[in-house]
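Bug: token stream looks shifted between consecutive jobs. Job 1:
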Amino acid sequence: IDGLMNVGTDAAYEQAALRAAAIGDTAREEKAVIARAELAAANGDTGAAEALLAPLEDNEEAQSALRRLIYDVAKAAKEKLDYPTAIARFDSLGDYEDAAAQKTDSIDLYGRQLMREGKYQAACDQFMLVSDTGDAIALIRQCRYALGLEKQQAGEYEAAAALFESLGVYEDAQTRGQLCRYTAGTNALSAVGRCMRVRNPVEHRLRD
């Protein structure tokens, strides 16, 4: 077993683990598994490394290596702007190192990314998760204003009015809210009028 461990290849570590398991040497078996995981991680196969380490729940060394691995995967995802992955991986680490702060920062960056893509509702949802940090409240208001504009331009005046009214004193939100309410009411009255004009000829024919 020791000779195989000194070879330093994945196949050798795997054989070392199998032989240790066959003789009930749990300590050396897990040492070989950890060595395989470290080699996999060094070669960029973090998925394989995680799969090897995760089952060793009672091995402190393995769990420490697993947390470090997940942290590094999360940081790499964040650097690649893959914020959903970063958020999920940091979240799984709880209070490990600065994972909580990294998660919060990733959520903020993801919200900003979504804003740039014009996905204002999704961005707003992210900022709501960190509403007590930084300028999240200001960004939420920007998103809701942009959503209001979209609804107004699409002719969804009731929804637009609700969004503008939720903003209070912000930009021209109050004026737009009033305009959208007025337009929605006017449209509703026009719809009723059209309905009456369609119904009245029918009623006349029935009476005749």
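Job 2, same session, no restart:
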Amino acid sequence: RIVEKESPILPEEETYLRNQIKAYFYSRSDLERFDFYLMNHQWMYSRTREGIRKQNFLLRSVTDTDYYRECTSNSYFHAILPANEPDVLFHYYHSLLRIRTKEPQALASVAVDDSYWRGLLKNHTNFGEFLCLFNADGLLLHADPGTPLADASPDILNEIYALSGQTSFYYTLDGQRYLVTCAEGASYQMRLMSFLPVSAIDSQIAQIR
């Protein structure tokens, strides 16, 4: 396997690797960037819609990161973490290990764009409603700037995540009471939450009367 090789990569092997990266990138329509790190050779291939580029990287620039430690230490060998860049919803990381030694041979990093998120917002921004997304460890992946959770304290975020094991619950933020509804993904246990002001619900009920 190419990722396990310690000897120089042959031209035909590199062509195959580039084609595989391209195929994966275009297998989905919501990828902003796909980075593939070959740990033994300290080469990184970065694929975007503009093309692919190859560059050297320092091993410590990867191994000293939170995402590397996370996706090489858990039983699924992956991590889903927040993205601090425009138009990206979150980052997905996955490590490829040598089975015998459990040593990481390669690391894939996927930047998922926010196109799906923007589609959700079209149906969930009426009446002061806002959305947020957590990963399976209770880390806030995304909350739009200007919404109450964007600058919420860790204590508030931890409390909200602990309550989100329920289908719905009430929560007060900045003096506003919200009805919170929750949905958890089957594959990666990410939790999507909708915060709808109770005052908006009361207003709609009053209009029906």
